[in-house]
User: Fold this.
Amino acid sequence: FVFEPSPITVCISSIFIKKIKKIPICFWVLDLWPESVYSAGNLKSNFIPNLLLPLVKYIYKNCDQILVSSRGFINSVAEKNVDKNKIKFFPQWAEHFFKPVKSKVNHLKTIPADSFKIMFAGNIGECQDFPSILEAAKILKKNKNIQWVILGGGRKESWVKSKIIEYELSDSFHLLGSYPIERMPEFYSLADCMLFSLKKEYIFSITIPAKVQTYLACAKPVIAMVDGEASSIITNANAGFSSPSENPESLARNIEKMSLMSKLELNRLGENALKHYKKEFERNMLITRMEDVFNSLVK
Assistant:
């Protein structure tokens, strides 16, 4: 069994073991290559992805079962001369500590208690499209009831800090830094809704960011600015609102709309989120399914 968050080359050693031991390989693909190399690397040409393509095809060819973390990955893998019968949708789950909790400590003391708090947790990077997030914050900055809480860090953090000053958002846009992942549910519990976004790229439209499962597992309403697969999850779960990638105007409208909802309505969205998580992403259910995959390979 090979777990591939990235890079795909982690599978190479297992191919040698397969040939020596004459045992099957089950490959769990969480990051699609070479597509993600092109998007995440912000490359201007296909030279490097095309260079990697034969290696990717070789790895897939030598795998007996390929599990993909998003349904959107299936066609991309199949296009690399892989039989679709070898490919199964198998999503990620959230770690066991992601669950509805009540924080004993108010980690958001510097933020008005009665405000509507929208929280982002994760990497502050190129892919997360902070330019659009900040544009939405700029659109809403006259509404002092709406407060943005950002947890995490990354290579765009300094740029974000400079834009907070330029856009005069210091009283509504808060960077709180990074904390241990185990403490995230405490922070989530203090937010009115959770935010995730991705740039407008093909690879991101077929990707399900891992934070989606953590938000749902903690029974939080979700605001998304993303295309495709992840957007469909939020919409189908009736767990919040989604807008297209790189559309700050639509994001701002959705946030304003949710900020006017009652606590009862927000709780209902959160309940829908948890219900969908238990149906589609619950850990024990998925591990049982994985055992079935292993058994079928051995037989």
